[in-house]
Each structure stands twice: as C-alpha cells, then as structure tokens.
Amino acid sequence: MLPGPALAGPTEADWAAAVAAVRRLPTGARVLLVCHVNPDGDALGSMLGFGLGLRRLGVRQLQATFPGPPEVPEPLRWLPGLDLLVPAAEAYPDPDLVVCFDAASASRLGELADRLDTAGEALVLDHHASNTGFGRLHLVDPGAAATSVVAEELLGRLDVPLDAEIAACLYVALTTDTGSFRFEATTPAVHQLAARLLATGIRPGDISRQVFDTRPFGAVRLFGEVLGRAVLDCPAAAGHGLVWTYATMDDLVRHDQRPYVLESLIDSVRCTAEADVACVLKQVGPEEWAVSLRSKGAVDVSRVAMALGGGGHRFAAGFTGLGSAQKVLGRIRAELDGALITS
Ligand code: AMP
Ligand code: MN
Ligand code: MN
Predict the structure, then answer these.
(1) Which residues surround ligand 2, an ion (CB under 5 A)?
(2) Which residues contact 33 (CB under 8 A, 6 or more apart)?
(3) DSSP secondary structure letter of residue 305
(4) What is the mean pLDDT of residues 250-272?
(5) I need a surface site. Which of 105, 236, 245, 326 has the fewest CB within 10 A?
(6) Rounded mean pLDDT of 84-100?
(7) What residues does 123 pair with on adjacent strands?
(8) pTM exceeding the 0.85 threshold for the entire prediction
(9) Cβ-count burial 107-123 (b if 16+ within 10 Å, e if not)
(10) Which residue has its alpha carbon closest to ligand 1 atom 2?
C-alpha cells in the first residue's frame, strides 16, 4: 500500500481546516474545481454538486474542469451545474483555492496537476484507499462509498442546504460508485444519504434511466461484438479465473461510437460466474490501453493496478497499459497470483 492519509478517514481537525479554507475566501476569490481524467458519475457529480453549493455560498469566480478533451459523457450531459465547466486550457492558472475530486493521485489530474502548486490552497476530496496524500488539505475517506459522500458532509458543515440541483449531482455520484446500491460499500449511511437527496424531490427513475439504461443502438451492437470475443481463462488468478475482452479504436469508429460508451462494458463482463476477476482493455492509442479490473472478492485488483502504474479500490481498479493487448494481459496475469486475498 502506498503511503497516504489515515485509513480511518478525515479527523475533526481535517474537517475544520477544509471549512476554514472555504470560509476565509475573500470576496472575488477564484476557485477552481478539478476532477479526474475521463470523469465518471462520481467525479463529475461530486464536483458539480459541490460547485453549486459554493455558488449558493456566494462564490462567483468559480470554474470546474478536468484534464483531457472537454467532453462530458452523453449520459451525464444533463447534470445541473454543467455551466461551471471550462476546458482545461481555460482554467485559472493560479486560483486562490483548488479543490480536487475523486482522484487518488496527482497524475489523475493530468495537465491540471500543476494547480496543486500554483493555487493559494489545495483541498482534496476523495475516497480511494490508494490516495497518495497529494495536495495540502485532505478529506480522504476510504470508508466512503463515493467522493460525493465526503462532498455532502463538507457542504453540510458549510451550512449549505441541499436543493434538487445539488442533490441530483450527488445522487448520480452515489449511484454510480455503489453500482446502484449493490456493492459492499452500501452502508446504512449510504441509504440515509440517498434518503436526504431524494427528499429534495429528485426523480430516481428518470435519473437512472438517463445515466445507466440509455445508449445508442450502435453501442448495443458494439457491445455485442466485444462481448462475443470475451475469453474465459479459468486457471488464471491461482484458479479463481479471469474473464477478459478488449475494444479497439477501430471498433468505435466502425460503430460510430465515442470512447465513454465503453465505460459500462466491464459490468457486462464481470457477471461471468466462472471468473473472480474481470478485465476490459479499451484502446486509447496505437499501443495504449485504458484497463478496467474488477474482482468478486478473491483478488485485490487495486494491488494489480498499482503494480502496473494505476490505482483504484480493492474490487474495482484500473491502469494505463502500454504495448499490445496480449502483452498488457500477460502483465496482468503475472500480477494476479500475487494479489490473492489470503486474510
Ligand atoms: P474504471 O475501471 O475506469 O471504472 O476505474 C475503476 C477504478 O480504478 C476507479 O476508482 C478509478 O479511479 C481507478 N482507476 C482507473 N484507471 C486508473 C488509472 N489509470 N490510474 C489510477 N487509477 C485508475
Ligand atoms: Mn471516479
Ligand atoms: Mn469515486
């Protein structure tokens, strides 16, 4: 495990320091919110929900951004607060405060990582056990189901009441990272948070349909093709089994699809009963793959991902793999045996 903040989560002193950092912002202060590259529902939802909260507090010079192309995945393109977004190239070069969301390491902030040094203050909201402790003020809770859990508590401590717009953002974040309340991290506190969010009047059926249950027909066909080439490798992970597949940039072009449609592909692969570990390789360059790893419990895939330069959670992790798909897969196979959970 990399060194990082205590696994116990933020202390009262951490909360107080974060609250003070927001409260002491002078009138006209510039605040930059940043989330991780290829933002998912938790990254965007916690960032925009918190941003709307800051706006309610009277922060006017407020930007939200993320590294890489400024493209929001279609299923999230209705989120309240999208007007806060600016392309990374237009982000304040030296904000008074930078707040980072859902990034376990500075590298996940790409070209925006320099703001950790140029900003007057740097606050990190996250829930990855692998968080490296980057930034100056930390609200990192590995026990939290989503970064939005941390964001909601901070908003509460700042006396920002939840409204339907903030709640919609935080609800998307919460449902994304808990697999719609199916994963182990779904504690009573998660349901209590969901209850507070739903009490604002947001419509969970509409939100879930937009975020999880809507995709273009081309994506359905693309999934069919990619799932059709999935491989089951029963001896892998010391006999716990590995199921994997890959999608190339050419696949995306042929089906006229954007890369983010592949984000949910891992969910269709990981249901394979015969394998503890699921893996999807998504081509992002000629010899470059965004790799998603999932485990049902026998393997700590965050150890595999960290050993290969990435990070994540025990049962959901990822990294960037260089070389051919077979080469990247060979490296994963080699790491799997050593990542068995023995305790
Ligand atoms: P994904 O498979 O993209 O849904 O990501 C699963 C988990 O792994 C998330 O918690 C990510 O933050 C983390 N993760 C994915 N890719 C990387 C990467 N390249 N570096 C570090 N962490 C990653
Ligand atoms: Mn995320
Ligand atoms: Mn998250």
Answers:
(1) 40, 42-43, 102
(2) 47, 50, 51, 54, 62, 63, 64, 65, 84, 98, 99, 101
(3) H
(4) 97
(5) 326
(6) 98
(7) 99, 137
(8) yes
(9) bbbbebbebbeebebbb
(10) 292
Whether ligand 1 lies within 6 angstroms of the CB of 308 is answered as no
- Residue that the structure tokens 């989330």 belong to: 35
Tell me the two tokens of residue 109.
Answer: 């902030």
- Is ligand 1 within 6 A of the CB of residue 321? no
Q: What is the bridge-based pairing of β-strands 137-140 and 121-126? A: parallel
Q: pLDDT value at position 4?
A: 42
Name the amino acid, one letter, at 16: A
Which 3 state secondary structure label does DSSP give 165? helix
Ligand closest to 41 (CA) is: 2
Residues 293-304 have a mean pLDDT of: 97
pLDDT exceeds cutoff 60 at 6:
no
Ligand 1: atom nearest CA of 128 is 10
Whether the CB-CB separation of 140 and 15 falls below 8 Å is answered with no
Residue 114, sorted as left (phi over 0), alpha (psi -120 to 50) or beta, turns out to be alpha
| Spacing, Cα 37 to ligand 1 middle (Å) | 10
Write the DSSP symbol of residue 58: T
